Structures
1.
Amino acid sequence: MNTNTDIDQSGFEQELAQHIISALNLDISPAEIDPVAPLYGDEGLGIDSIDVLEISLVVTKQYGVQLRSDDGNNAKIFASLRNLANHIQQNRTK
Amino acid sequence: MQSIPLLKFHQPESVFAWQRGKTISAQRFLTDVIALAERLPARSYVLNLCNDRYRFMVGFSAAMLRSQISLLPPSHTSDLVNRLAQQYADLYCLSDAAHDHGSLQTMSYPDLSDVNLLHAPMPEIPAAQVAALVFTSGSTGNPMPHEKTWGALSQDVIAEASRLGILNRGDLTLLGTVPPQHMYGFESTALIAMQGGVILHAAKPFFPADIGASLNEIRGPRALITTPVHLRALLTSNTDLPALELIVCATAPLSRELALQAIVRFGAPLQEIYGFTEAGQIASRETAVSDEWRTFDGLSLHQKDGTTYVSGGHIVDELPLGDITELLSDTTFLLHGRTADLINIAGKRTSLASLNHHLTTIDGVHDGVFFMPDEQQGNTARLAAFVVAPELDAREILKALRLRVDPVFLPRPIHKVATLPRNSTGKLPRTSLDKLLQQCKRG
């Protein structure tokens, strides 16, 4: 597990991490998600495309943000918890 | 020798596809196919990774004109692509995005917009020509090829279009949420347009909002070709969709509850399709009203030594079904779960045997097994794995698996155990694994 404690999560990142963990049924605590580590791929959470769909549902339900795959920033949005959190905070409607 | 036209019903001026909000005529499609065929390298096998469904079909058709065979492997992990490159020496890749596939020569899908419309006669392809090799995951890590002739593919999707009541419905556009690189999407979103006389939508929407936007960018009647995963996402997200005429669902069992919700919400009938890689699509049912599957016209079933076989229609030699089947007649049946070890998640298929092979050949893994828990209502079932590997942590095991296995099949979670509950013959009965899973969950 990732034990990087150099970078602290913001309050909102913690809240989002908790939503992701319960949506994906992950066996970790929010604090274990490094906010700047990649969500996709070999490192970090290592989520896949079905997970991304699950995360998108949570994000829509909780914050009213509809994710779109032709959003040119998608790779960036899912690059890390921090980027996803920033994207949501800029676009949230609730 | 019998031959079949590339497009069976379309007239030159009729709409063949929608791409980014614009229509593409059958004549333009034909022009693009011929122009691309002239540009393809002189090779025998092509791995067509075009994301855009229209370009994928232009690539597939151009390859057929050049007698090249399209390979449809179960995934595109670098390990698998390398294995294919070794098995099919002059394999190349056709791609419309930046793909890096190491040793494989890649041709970028060219810009054909300057090519003047051709008034060429409709190409005819020999029915016996092998158009595609579709792969199942072999138990040793090497995928098993299954030949698909142009004639069999054509016959199968015509039977499917007839069953769905959409044959030669030149005004109906089919939007697929599944890629054309796997059998379901290949047949039910792409080939069905070419041979069933309906309109292909080039997009491959992913998020619920994408599906809505893709449906809204076209005019005329619409059908949605999708999976239980995407249907559930659409229903959960409360996305507004324009009116649908038909919903088609396949890849994993759809619950009646979800089917009913979809029908009520989108106001369209829902047909569920049953098929498997070796045979293609073979049957359908109206999930909301009946559990009973009905084979496509021309196909029939029989049982021999406890195994159910399908034959007739596009199927040359009888093929065994990988599921526990209860025959009601020779054309109607019930499914009672998977017999064998076939795993299908989000339209991607593999087998437990193949996954177990990959797991147990990792350095440091002494023993290991994948396990598919029973479907949980409302959730996409995920694989679990039990691993005996005293020197490795779960993260290292996952990292090694990631190189060999498509991400949707990665186990969640990995349970590290001291031993596996093998019985006296070395087998791992499902009930024992179920018990082990409960123990691990309780910690």
2.
Amino acid sequence: MFKKIILSLFIIGILLAVGIYYYVFVYAVHNKRQVSDQVAILITADSLTANFTSNETLANATYLNKVIQVSGVVIETGVNQEGKTTVTLGTEGAFSNVFVTFKNKETLKKGDVVVVKGFCNGFLSDVVLVDGIVVK
Amino acid sequence: MNKVILSFLLVVTSVFQLSAQKVYATKTGQIYFNATGEAVKIEAVNNQVDSKFVESTGQIIFGVLVKGFKFENQLMEDHFNENYMESTKFPKADFKGFITNIKDVNFSKDGQYAVNVEGTLTIHGVGNKTNTKGIMVIQNGTPTLKGEFKVDVKSFGINGSYIGGKIASEASLKVNCKY
């Protein structure tokens, strides 16, 4: 009887350790937060920029680390050092705009009116969105 | 008459000086973060580094959003943001300073130039004077700044368990910015 209890405790212990190991080192690597399965905050590129330029602290509290769905005009396209597509959305000549880095290669061009979704990282010279996907 | 000529010359030269004030900028620079202590690798990369420098003076600035550091492991990324960097409270890190020997770099000649960078690095709301060496690579007139340096995590007021153990007490930052 005593042996059985020890044995089952031992088995439970091993299962628990394997479970924790799996969750921390396997599950967490393969299940990253995805832009596509989160509810997005809808806003235009120009209002998002305006919110950050007028009150950055408030805007950070509202948008930081959230998925934002932004609509706007493509004013610049580019490729980052990792080869990923980037676009700037907003108004040409404006001091700040919305700078989006896409998850996959996208074929967008200057002048396109688009709706994109991405995680908001905050505000440098532009509002920065990452892991972007094109909605339409 | 002389005064008129002098002021004319002054205006002309100042205009020339302004046009010589060439600024290089990027929004897609890279910074690699590595704080691997013991067995588990703790690495992240940020591909949205905002940086500018002035060719004539060597004045340089880097800005980075802490939430932009992407880890392979989501849990690690969440811990980095919540428990160590407190990125909701301190969303940005930056460096403001000078390339002290910018005159050694010949922007019109391809090659690699050793540079010294001095300034203030602000992480987690704490600013520390820093100086480091780097390499400025000129290729077809495009400069790329590369460098690697160590930061003492605790000197930026970053506390939390595991530092000194699983997490190295000195994190390494590798910069690679193509302007």
3.
Amino acid sequence: MSARMDRTFWIWLGLILYILACVFLSRDIDWLKSYPEALVLPVAPVMNNGMVALVDSFGSVFRAISWAMTWPFTWIQQLFHWLPWPVTMALVAIVAHAAQGYRLVIFALISMSYMLITGYWYQSMNSLTLVAISVPLAILVGFGFGVWGFYSKRAERVMMPTLDLLQTVPAFAYLIPILLLFGFGPVVGVIASLLFSFPPMVRNTVLGLRGVSAVVIESGLMSGATRAQLFWQVRLPSAQRQILLGVNQATMASLSMVIVASIIGGTDDIGWEVLSTMRKALFGESLLAGIVIALIAMLMDRITWGLAIRESEYNNEEPPTWRQRHRHWIVAGVAFVALFSLSAIVPALHKYPEAWQYNPAQYLNDAINYIIINYREVIETIKTVSFFYLMLPTRIGLEQTVSPYTWGFEMTAAFTFGYVALFIGLMGAAFHYISSRAAIAVALFGTIYYFGLTNIPWLAMTVVFIFLGWRLGGWKLALGTSLGLAFLLLTGSWEVAVLSLYMCGLAVIVSFVLGGAIGIWAAHNDRVSAIVRPINDTLQTMPLFVLLIPVVMLFKIGEFTALIAIVAYAIVPAVRYVEHGLRDLPEDVIEAATAMGCTGRQLLFQVKLPLALPIIMLGLNQTIMYAIAMLVIAALVGTNDLGQQVYIGLGDGDFGVGMIAGFGMAIIAMIADRMTQGWSKGKRQELGIS
Amino acid sequence: MIQETSSNEFDKGDVKLSCRDVWKVYGATPDKYFTNRSGRVDDPVGLAEQIRSDGHIVAACDVSFDVHVGEIFVIMGLSGSGKSTVVRSLSRLVEPTAGEVILDDRNLLEASKKELIDIRRHKMGMVFQSFGLLPHLTVMENIAFPLKLQGVSLKERQEKAQQVIELVGLEGRESSHPSQLSGGQQQRVGIARSLAVEPELWFLDEPFSALDPLIRRQMQDEFLRIQQMLHKSIVFITHDFMEALRIADRMAIMRDGVIVQIGTPDELVLHPADSYVAEFTSDVPWIRVLTAADIAEQPSGPVGGLPSVDGDTTLEDLLSVVCGSDDGVVIKSPANGDTIGVVTQKGLIEALAKGVEAQHVDASASKL
């Protein structure tokens, strides 16, 4: 073991020297510094030509589908607008009650009153129309594929990687082909959200059907079930809960995509409201509309979640009467008739009068201005410190960052010497007190911080990543990593991909360190845990878009803002998994360690954290995935990475550019995912947890 | 290899289910070892060895036994001995690699899918160790489920389900869900469900193993009570030797896929076929297993005026009676009341001493 560790240590040390050599050599050798243009393949034009050909030959088919889908869309939209608001409110409240009881009813009523009062009812109904069409479609399609994948191993083998791709390619990227194929209009949003939201349904369906215990199947068979009976009466009901969780996830994915799709415009929905006001720097309006999205998201989440885990009917000893079983339908019917007739008499109940609206956007704007003016210095300090001391060095290196303007002094040889000495010292300390791995991490960080991620030559970075892939996932992952990196190089996306890596990597480190600390705190303090949980829930259910608003309000547009927005989202899994991992440890081990006389600190660092490591690793995995998902959204507020490329592709209708950037992000996400999962798996095997 | 030492009343009855030369081999190419489906081979032990050395797993090796009408046939073995595979082969939940399973002169292994479903619907019931209840259905719905699959009308299936609910003592819990019941109650639901279709064959796969010892004992009594009323032909799987002794009419001991011995509990205890079986019997409290009939002697004088007990009284219960009667106790056949013989104080002490000695010998034999 230790001999092996030592060998790994030396290999890493060799790699760091190799990086340094590459950096120094690249100052004179151009093709080492940046990947030669001559070797870039013209992939984007080829893709564009293919797309044009496709549109030319099959365009009419797609447009016909689009046209056909416009009808149900229009009907549902008209239905939602035709229903008097008290009727809609009552119906939603009844569904909320069926899902989770009175507390959710109160939340539903408050949320919908908010939409009415702030005057976003109309836009909200338009957004709901999109969701109302795409969710049932996604559920049907996802369920169908899920059942197919369950019965056919071969189908599953093809399906799962495709789903991976659909979920990791950023949402904006597939708006482009959809736009080109289906043309403008609300249907684009529906189709995009369908593509994005059916994968979780497939996964949960397969998972649920697989998870039905063998003995339940056997008991069904012994009861004489035919194949069809076995499926509909045994497998499906037993898997019901998992499948309904799939419905919940599909709904949430659909909603977030509907919001994203509004970027194209064409529907006067709530996402468009947020985006257009944000572009006009009307932050108050934007925030108020954003809250509507968050409320809708939370409400839908609670309702579908509640329906999935509903157990209330399992608890009564007496068999429910017909009236008890159908009480929600009865109440809904009565409420519908009563409120509908009432609204025919009282006009204010038919259409919410504008005079009753109250939109405090102006006050919000004033408040924001007040904050910005009065706390300008604080805000600016936070921004400059992070920018000059953290972001810039990571990106272009201390070497180029340090100047009288930024750090207050010139870059000198003495400074460099001091820096090197400091890091060698740190390395020694890490080696001595922690492990050889920690020492390697310190050395890598020191190297990157000094030269900057963008100044590490491609030849150095690819070798490091392929080696990492081999260490964590064997030759298969090494091969996959090589292919992925080759795609980035050959399509000429390397430079922007490195910028994505920089944004994402930095955000992940910040999220993970900060989130981990909060997680540890929450694991040891119930009150902190109780405070953190609802915040996490909210951050997680909130469509990504909305997170941008407050950050942009305070810090204006720029890379720092993007970073904060990513961290705000990616910190959630870090907190959650660390807390969960630390709380969910085998009681006997903790007791044994305490009995040995561990101090609190020893217990945490030498027992709990190592044991919880596999789960914490999954948290890191999720943190990375969340960060990458947010990366594209963050491109809206000013970054130069792949996310921005996707956005540019969308803006210009350039299928090739947008799609390549989208695939590039998917590649980064998948490599990071496989690597962290490989690491976690290795750790789990070491600890003997399956 | 199989030592059949049986001399039991059930041997005289009709055979309900016959399991003949059943093999189950897991692996890449299990079929290549069998030229015909009958499973009859000249040297099963040699074949099993060959199959295993090829990297296949032999879960059941040439398993043969008969289950008579109204008999409780217990298959006892430790985990991994193949007993679950065998009981699943009987209903083709597991498809045997070779052999015959004959139910009422019909080889089940040749039945079509449709016929098989029909047989499962009407002739078989099965109880599972981990219950296998459908979580979304109530007790009533779970029990009526097999009837529902057959397309029986709601009213009729509720009536039938109600009958078995009363049989297993679950009145009042009809509209509960499985998650609201204790383990013992859940297994009652499992038992009721398997009986709802009035099967002729009843398979029980370690039905009480997941329960607490006290509940287990209670459920065994309950099971015996139900069987006394219904007279099903039963295959009962267990890993608990004492449980097997308590309930079996005849039992088989399995090890590594092979049946080591078949016989009545008494026969197994008194004449274990090899040291493996002896190891189980060595823990048996003889005083509770041996019956008065087992140790009865020919009377040496007149028996008039002596107290009498039934032949199936255990020695434990016999002790107090013999204590109070210096001249011995008359043992009568439980079936017809004929005198079998007498047990004297001396005879009882001798039998116990011998039992202890035999136990001692067996135990040391098993250590060799």
4.
Amino acid sequence: MEIIRFEHVTKTYPLYHHFFSGLKNFIFNIPSAMKQLRSSGFTALKDLSFTIQEGESVAFIGRNGAGKSTLLGLIAGVLKPTSGTIRVSKRVSPLLELGGGFHPELSGLENIQLNGVLMGLSRKQVAAKIDEIVAFSELGEFIHEPIRSYSSGMNARLGFSVIAHLEPELLLIDEVLAVGDASFQKKCFAKIKEFKARGVSVVLVSHNSSDIEMVCNRVIWIENHKILMDGPTAEVLPHYIKAMT
Amino acid sequence: MTPAHLYDLIYELLKKELKVRYKRLVLGYLWSIASPLMYAGLYYLVFYKILKVSTENYPLFLVSSLFPWQWMTNTIMIAPSTYIGNASLIKKTLFPRYLIPVVVAIQDALHYLVSIPVIILFVYIFHGTFSWHWIFGIPALVVVQFTIASSLNLLFATLTVFFRDLERFLQIGIMFLFYMTPVLYSETKIPDNYQWLIIYHPIAPLIINWRTLFMNGTIRGDYLISSLAWGVLLLSLAQFAYRKLSWRFAEVL
């Protein structure tokens, strides 16, 4: 069964600095400002079509600015396509950025409660899992401190610990596993393997080829806002590494 | 989205807003009472003691109109940061975005509710009228004011994402509205040929009703209907703007 289908998806961003250059210009030149807004735009993804089947684990690779994060945003439903259609048939647990949706003034524990509910759990479910989440994060007493005092690694631990205890059907991960230390990374990959064994699909954006080899059986290479190559990891990855060096 | 999960979301978001707002303040929740009281003290000094406003029972007059006015301004003034201050939440997680303004408005309403005993204390000290009408009047005015306040928050929060200059306009606009609303002075001071305008004013009928409710135990029906009409109008306007623009939040923030 296919879980993600993209058909001729194009995403353009209006160049908002025309807006933000101020109300003054906008109000005094409404016709030309509107025209400018319509015509100028930045194309992040151009006419993309692909499908991902259940149980597949796919990595998106490509240069910075190629459109990978936009792609994840579209799959997660946070962004809407400019044209084309997107169908995602599973409940998505987006991990677009570790600690995304965390509030710096709240403690680790309070953030787990908020994040869990935002990710679709009920308060009861979060309460039932919270001890497990805290234990997994290995943050100890720091769990009661506001997370503005956390290091980026500790932030990543907290973020992944929440995700690891959700029941995702589709996991989106945006180059976030690089920040943790080696032992925590190992734990993360063990967890991802566990998810995969349960039939959860993983979509990963990463620049680390060993991560990709470990997690994904298929790689889609985005170049110039289009798909350049799409195939098994062993086929696409060597081409990509060669092109990058 | 099930109603149970909607409730959980509002609960957690409200908890977050309350915690974040008072996290580093020593006096914490006391501020919701202390700050309108301090304003009342200031205006009492300036208008009663220095400018010698001749309004009867001025302390009670001030408190009964200034407290609801403070509630209204707080909800409007926080609008520009309602979405902008929650950018990471909006870019990275998926939940109905209108919930943030709703939660912000609920928070300010709660602060007003806990300050009502202070108003009642003033009624007692300054010989106002305790009235059975409060039982119906207070909830009715709370509901109407909540509708107006939350709609204005949703509207301005949505628009400020795209036009950040709006924040500056809002600061001046609120100041303007404050002096154009009978908060510090009685509506009877408004010249006769402008009296007919009061009923079309977005906030004045509400504030006048709050004051007469606490001072005399009465509510004017035509003013209540006017406020209700403003509530419905602003709510539809805010919803329209939200529907048109909310899908772009994650791009722009």
